Structure formats: structure tokens, C-alpha cells
Amino acid sequence: MDACALIYRFEGALKFRTAAMELMAQLSAQQTSVELAVSRLSVLECRVKPLREGNAALLKRYDDFFCKCAHRGTECSSGGRRHALACP
Fold it and tell me: What distances in angstroms separate CA 6 from CA 28, 79, 80, 81, one per listed residue?
């Protein structure tokens, strides 16, 4: 999942936050199990603003979300190994 969708989910204006959450709900509505692939770059992109602004509460919300994710092989790193986060 791209960072912008996650940023909308956690800190977007109500209109965008609602749209992002509704889309995620629609995508998973008829699935018994859903995994969300999030690249390490997206994780870093999400953390930039809260770190820059010293917003510990927002950073914790992101960290709590990403801590639920497990490493899965979906993104190529510079070393040729594949890494990403897959969130149930």
C-alpha cells in the first residue's frame, strides 16, 4: 500500500480519511483473510512528519499499526533480497 493512503487514514482531512477507510473496508469486505503489503519506504514516509514535528502521539499510532505487520517478501531491496511488511 502506498504511503499516501496510510497518511490519509491516520492524519488526512475527514473527507480523505473517510474515503481511505471506506476503500480499505470495501477491498476486504468479502475476504476471509486480508494482508496489506506495505514497503519499508512507505513506513519511512509515514514516519517523517510526526518525527519532524515531534508528534509522539501520531508516531505511536503509526508504530502500533506497523508493529502488527510481519516481514514478508514483496519488495526488492538493494541487496537483492525481497522485503516488505504484510499487515493482516
Answer: 15, 27, 26, 25
